[in-house]
Specification:
heterodimer, A: alpha+beta, Arc Repressor Mutant, subunit A, four-stranded mixed beta sheet, three-stranded antiparallel beta sheet, 3 helices, 29% strand, B: alpha/beta, nine-stranded mixed beta sheet
Chain lengths: 108, 364
């Protein structure tokens, strides 16, 4: 099975608030929010770790999910984000500029 | 509720500063007659200091970062700052007069994917615009800068501050913005100087001029709706917060001073000597601002306009009391609806003193 590598696009603004990522496309100002699972995938999208490993190491452990099912969902999810231009997909590792995606978790 | 409103509400509930305006310099190549700033350099933050502040803002959860001045391009390290801000994934907005935007600057701003660039234009006529900026040739250079930005696909918002000097020109500015492929925004508010000097307010529009502006459907949309009498007072209105200043937004000066808003110069801390989050969470001044609801406004809580007024707590502060009325906003409510505000009625009877504000020094 081929490996899928994912990297955060540079043409976005992004910040996590209480475990949910808020992402704005700099191209057309469209706003996206990601749920906690999507946020973990986004934050792990460093271009180096294959998607299958992200799912195995971070999603399945955290959410007690079935690996095959979780990977299928994750592939659909990253394809969707890539179609909106906020994530880059490749079948080989992706070099990406240094980006810092800050997470804020604070109670009211 | 839109996604953005949802995030705004969540940020408010969690006490997260969603938006920050950082002025990187007060130096400017223009000398606009209505400007509220002192343009001398009293010791701006260095590049390293600003990068440190940006790190802290990102950690704090800031999403929208507006870089303004002064004229931002007076700083030779401006692109260094923007580049770093974008690496931290801020949604970056820039305010500039575009005078110094050449091909290279326009290309860099496009590459850095800034959200938008806001440029002030006072008139489509050079003799009027340049007489306000006091810089000969400024309209021509500003328009050239905007054209370059647009040719690189950068979104531009033309900001048109209205005062007596350019009142008759806003239609021309709207047309110019359209020709340039830019958005247009109008602001009939002249702000007192940050040191409290109110002389500049003499340039602002009076009620008759505001009435004309507010009855122009090109500017306000549905005039009947915009100028409708205020709805009957509802108890919920009194629990409402005045605006985002100090709640989900704040302002940082080139010297590191932190205020609730650029238009609300209540000294609340300094990021050179304190951590941003310490100021944001524990500043006595910010917490005082946050404690105020409409019910706490001694004059405005009894005013029929309270639910629909654009009352700016910063302008009220500059008038002497952040819990007091903002006379400029009273005038706007009156110009819109023809109904006097409680403050206006009290002033007529001489029950309100109009002492000028003294800007307090930061507590040591």
């Amino acid at each position: 099975m081929r490996s899928v590598y994912i990297s955060r696009a540079t043409a976005v603004a992004a910040r996590s608030l209480d475990g949910e990522m808020m992402i704005m496309s700099a191209k057309d100002s469209t706003l996206f929010t990601l749920n906690p699972v999507g946020t973990i995938i986004w934050q792990s999208a460093d271009g180096k770790m294959p998607l299958a490993e992200i799912v195995k190491q971070k999603i399945c452990v955290e959410f007690d999910a079935d690996p095959a099912e979780a990977l299928k969902d994750a592939e659909l999810f990253v394809s969707d984000l890539a179609s909106h231009g906020i994530l880059v997909m490749s079948d080989s590792p992706i070099a990406q500029p240094e980006l810092h995606s800050k997470t804020v978790t604070r109670g009211s | 509720m839109s996604l953005m409103q949802e995030f705004g509400q969540r940020a408010l509930d969690r006490g997260v500063p969603l938006s920050v305006q950082l002025d990187v310099t007060y130096r400017c190549n223009e000398r606009c007659i209505h400007c509220y700033l002192d343009h001398d350099d009293h010791g701006e933050m260095t590049t390293a200091e600003i990068r440190g502040v940006l790190d802290q803002l990102a950690d704090a959860g800031v999403f929208f970062l507006t870089l303004s001045g002064g004229e931002v391009f007076m700083r030779r390290d401006f692109f260094n700052i923007v580049e770093y801000a974008r690496s931290l994934m801020f949604c970056v907005k820039i305010k500039t007069n575009a005078f110094m935007i050449g091909e290279e600057e326009a290309r860099r701003l496009h590459e850095l994917m800034v959200q938008d660039v806001q440029v002030s234009i006072y008139s489509h006529r050079a003799e009027v615009h340049d007489a306000i900026t006091l810089l000969p040739g400024s309209l021509k250079r500003t328009v050239e800068g905007i054209r370059r930005l647009r040719s690189h696909g950068v979104k531009v918002v033309v900001a048109n501050v209205l005062m007596m000097q350019n009142l008759s020109d806003y239609s021309g500015v709207i047309q110019l913005a359209e020709d340039l492929g830019a958005e247009y925004t109008i602001d009939p508010t002249i702000t007192p100087m940050m040191d409290g000097d109110r002389n500049v307010l003499r340039l602002g529009l009076g009620v008759p001029q505001l009435q004309d502006v507010f009855r122009n459907s090109d500017l306000v949309g549905n005039v009947d709706e915009f100028c409708a009498p205020p709805p009957a007072m509802h108890e919920d209105v009194l629990r409402e917060l005045p605006c985002s200043a100090g709640h989900t937004a704040c302002y940082i000066s080139p010297y590191g001073d932190l205020y609730p808003c650029v238009q609300f110069p209540l000294p609340s801390g300094n990021v050179r000597s304190q951590k941003f989050m310490d100021i944001w969470l524990y500043s006595e001044q910010l917490n005082d601002v946050r404690s105020i609801t409409a019910a706490d406004l001694p004059v405005c809580s009894g005013c029929g306009h309270v639910g629909s007024c654009s009352r700016c707590p910063g302008l009220a502060y500059l008038e002497g009391n952040m819990r007091g009325p903002s006379t400029q906003d009273c005038q706007k409510s009156f110009a819109r609806t023809g109904i006097e505000s409680a403050n206006m009625r009290l002033r007529k009877t001489g029950s309100v003193s109009s002492g000028l504000v003294q800007i307090a020094a930061l507590p040591s």
